[in-house]
Design a protein that fits this description.
This protein has one domain: Nucleoside phosphorylase domain (Rossmann fold, 3-Layer(aba) Sandwich). The chain is about 30% helix and about 25% strand. It is built from 7 helices and 9 strands. Helix 3 packs parallel to helix 6. It is globular. The N and C termini lie far apart (about 40 Å). The structure holds hypoxanthine (HPA). Hypoxanthine (HPA) binds next to strand 5, strand 8 and strand 9.
Length: about 280
């Protein structure tokens, strides 16, 4: 059987290239940064920056607001690696490419994966700028990064009953309380995009039990769970979803709101990493 994009050899080639740039650094925590949230990487000390063009198999990002580099170094007493710039399905990438960085992090020895994204708020009480702790997710992309041959270190049928680790979620709630960050928990749904949803689609998603909608994260978490990584996810509600408010949606507004919330979310994530 042929290997899909993002298969074993790609993971190994990317891991080898990154390892050679890391020197003595051994990251145990990875942080995936969503649209407009790339500023977080500036918190990392003694950082080495690895542009995607130096990593075989990592495409150049095509979306404004997404960088294209990994940043590894120390944060809150831990060795971390941040992914600034994602590979989205709507850019035409296979789910295996969207999940390639996560698989590479696992191969590097990372055991905890923190993910952030920008999302539309479906829950009607979510104001613009709300930070939602992802309690669970719904995959409406109809894609899966585990299709095809089972990669080394993965399971054929991984359990998905705790996609977002309950202990990490409890820790997130504690740190949020300490730092006086208000945190709402809810269900995130990933769609393929790139067009935003219609009001009818948002009403459907609301009935399906989704609280926030976006175009990332779920396929990455699926691959991460197949490799046994513990995951924690945050959505920044950058806008009320389509039809929830009379305003039209645009990517510039999404990025501006995400940037505004970066400081608050960054402090929360830093506090969580300190207590891991
Ligand atoms: N829908 C889908 N993805 C998004 C949205 C939205 O309203 N806002 C930010 N990412």
């Amino acid at each position: 059987m042929s290997e899909g994009a993002g298969g074993q050899e790609m993971v190994e080639a990317a891991t080898t290239a990154i390892t050679s740039r890391l020197g003595s650094r051994r990251p145990s925590v990875a942080v995936v940064l969503g649209s407009g949230l790339g500023f977080f990487a500036q918190r990392i000390q003694d950082a080495v920056t690895i542009p995607y063009r130096e990593i075989p198999g990592f495409p150049e990002p095509t979306v404004i607001g997404h960088g294209g580099e990994l940043v590894a170094g120390r944060l809150a007493g831990k060795e971390v690696i941040a992914q600034s710039g994602r590979f989205h399905l709507y850019e035409g990438h296979d789910a295996g490419i969207a999940a390639l960085p996560v698989r590479t992090f696992a191969a590097l020895g990372v055991s905890t994966l923190l993910l952030t994204n920008a999302a539309g708020g479906i829950r009607r009480t979510f104001a613009q700028g709300t930070v939602m702790l992802i309690a669970d997710h719904i995959n409406l992309t109809f894609r899966n990064p585990l299709l095809g041959r089972v990669l080394t270190g993965e399971e054929r049928f991984p359990d998905m009953s705790d996609p977002y680790d309950p202990r990490l979620r409890a820790l997130a709630r504690e740190v949020a309380l300490d730092r006086r960050v208000s945190l709402n928990e809810g269900v995130y749904v990933q769609l393929l995009g790139p067009s935003y949803e219609t009001p009818a689609e948002i009403r459907m998603l609301e009935r399906l039990g989704a609280d926030a909608v976006g175009m990332s994260t779920v396929v990455e978490v699926i691959a991460a769970r197949a490799r046994g990584l513990q995951c924690l996810g945050f959505s920044v509600v950058t806008n009320p979803a389509s039809g929830i408010s009379p305003n039209k949606l645009n990517h510039t507004e999404v990025m501006e709101t995400a940037r505004r919330v970066t400081g608050e979310l960054g402090s929360l994530i830093e506090g969580i990493i300190r207590r891991l």
